[in-house]
Amino acid sequence: MRRPNMSVLAKEAGVGVSTVDRVLNGRAEVREDTARRVLEAAERIGFYATPLLRHRLKADLPQRTFAFLLQQKSTPFYKLLGEALQKATDECAGVRGKAVIEFMEDLTPGAVAETLLRMGKVADGIAVVAADHPNVTAAIDTLGSKSVPVVALVSDLTAASRAGYVGLDNRKVGRTAAWFLSNMLPAGSAVSIFVGSHRYLCQEACEIGFRSCLRERAPDFVLIDPVATLESDHYAFEATLDLLRRHPGLAGLYVAGGGIGGVLKAVKEAAGERVPTIIGHDLTDPTIHGLVDGTLSVVLSHPIEAVATQAVELLAQKSLQPKSEWQYMHHNLPLQIFTPESV
């Protein structure tokens, strides 16, 4: 199949070939709405010079560098989120954006705070996934005093000077997990919850919602104390085996933090024992495999592309405003739900 040429693009955009040539080569001024229509048509048909068209249309826009501080790249969710943030930055209409994606291996509050301050020297705005801690708060406040907006991504923070939050309503996420288990399991079932760390506000809210909903819908359920996985598949693997040994009648498990790969591996290794109904977070290759092979029953997921787009747009907006006009923006995005029959 021949790749679309300028004539095909002109027809798709409803303009003449000479107009496409002017947009592509910058030979003469073209109305912004016309140029935008040519770009949209190019994206639809897969025109070979689409990246050049994007560059031409952004030549007069302000340049901004956005830093995205994510957790370990070995975690499939953050690898996908990093890719989505890069794409959203490239496609941001208001600025010529440059994305700096940093996957943090050391997640201790001191290390995260140091990374925030280091990135603040080169970035016009930062989005970060972090546990809530005074060290992190102090770093965000310092950056705010220097007019560098910081957006809490996936997990909210308590720093008063943060520019906003982009993620889910995590209390609803936890309640949704409890709703599923209360409808899928018999009365009096024993269930447990795994969190990555007790300092992540997103996971704290998930646990609060989970407990609250169970109290309302299944007051006879036995809720075993939560287990922290430290966002690690290794720790989650060991914790799951230990939980199954100590509670052989465990009927349900809600994994609200990192480590789902370790949980699924442990459950498979304990195949001779009763397998609990498991609910996890975020649609990635491991959770898709878990749904398909029956180890995982439900996945409650962030809409990754929407999270990335909203985060970049918020950073672009704040970076173009004087600090005196900043207002905190809270963006709760719709939860996605996946089951074995929907993947």
TrEMBL record:
- Which Pfam families does the UniProt record give? LacI, Peripla_BP_4
Domain of life per record: Bacteria
Q: Which InterPro entries match?
A: HTH_LacI (IPR000843), Lambda_DNA-bd_dom_sf (IPR010982), Peripla_BP_I (IPR028082), SBP_2_dom (IPR025997)
UniProt keyword terms in alphabetical order: DNA-binding, Transcription, Transcription regulation
Q: Which residues form the signal peptide?
A: none
Q: Residues in domain HTH lacI-type?
A: 4-58
| This protein's name | LacI family transcriptional regulator
